[in-house]
């Protein structure tokens, strides 16, 4: 894409393509989700975020014309106070962080593609990432594991190997 085409798409010349205003944000988000399939975990995060965006939008057909700073602030508040997990508990800090970042990635891409005139991903501060605590086996627990009987010795060996080489921390 040439520089002028990109500038036009971003609205630099104040010429607006009104047809993009009427496109549905959730359809665009779904398309991005499918394009960004890098791993099952990443896809699942995009999918989970989409579920929360859909819950926030309700039955309203949200177009790009409807997206403004208030919409973005509203979604952040929704995640923080109203959105729930499947087991009806409040979202964890890291879930809010992840879902909001997927939402912001879609807004950023929408701006780059010329669907919005402002990059709303930069106008509202995101969530801080929560602290996570990792549990580790003690030396005594590893020794007990090494002495324990296991029906599948190869699995036991693989587990112990991953613990002793820190491969378990990468999971």
Could you explain the architecture of this structure?
This protein has 171 residues and is mainly α. The chain is 56% helix and 0% strand. The chain contains 8 helices and no strands. It is elongated and about 70 Å long.
Helix and strand topology:
Blueprint: H1 3-9, H2 18-21, H3 25-35, H4 40-57, H5 69-82, H6 93-112, H7 139-147, H8 153-165
Defining key terms:
mainly alpha; elongated; 171 residues
Shape designation: elongated
Proportion of beta-strand residues: under 5%
* SSE pattern: HHHHHHHH
Structural class: mainly alpha
The total strand number stands at 0
The largest pleated sheet is described as: none
Mean pLDDT: 86
Question: What is the terminal separation in angstroms?
Answer: 40 Å
Q: Give Rg in angstroms.
A: 22 Å
State the share of residues found in helices, binned by percent: 55-70%
| Low-confidence region ranges | none
Tally of helical runs: 8
Short description:
The chain is mainly α. It has helices spanning 3-9, 18-21, 25-35, 40-57, 69-82, 93-112, 139-147, 153-165.
């Amino acid at each position: 894409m040439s520089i002028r085409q990109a500038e036009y798409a971003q609205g630099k010349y104040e010429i607006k393509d009104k047809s993009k205003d009427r496109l549905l944000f959730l359809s665009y988000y779904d398309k991005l989700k499918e394009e960004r399939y890098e791993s099952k975990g990443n896809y699942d995060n995009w999918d989970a975020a989409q579920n929360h965006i859909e819950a926030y939008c309700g039955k309203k057909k949200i177009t790009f014309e409807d997206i403004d700073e208030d919409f973005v602030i509203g979604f952040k508040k929704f995640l923080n106070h109203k959105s729930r997990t499947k087991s009806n508990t409040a979202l964890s800090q890291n879930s809010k962080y992840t879902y909001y970042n997927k939402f912001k990635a879609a807004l950023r891409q929408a701006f780059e593609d010329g669907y919005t005139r402002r990059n709303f991903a930069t106008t509202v501060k995101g969530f801080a990432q929560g602290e996570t605590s990792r549990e580790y086996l003690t030396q005594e627990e590893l020794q007990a594991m090494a002495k324990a009987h296991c029906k599948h010795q190869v699995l036991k060996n693989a587990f112990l190997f991953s613990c002793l080489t820190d491969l378990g921390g990468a999971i």
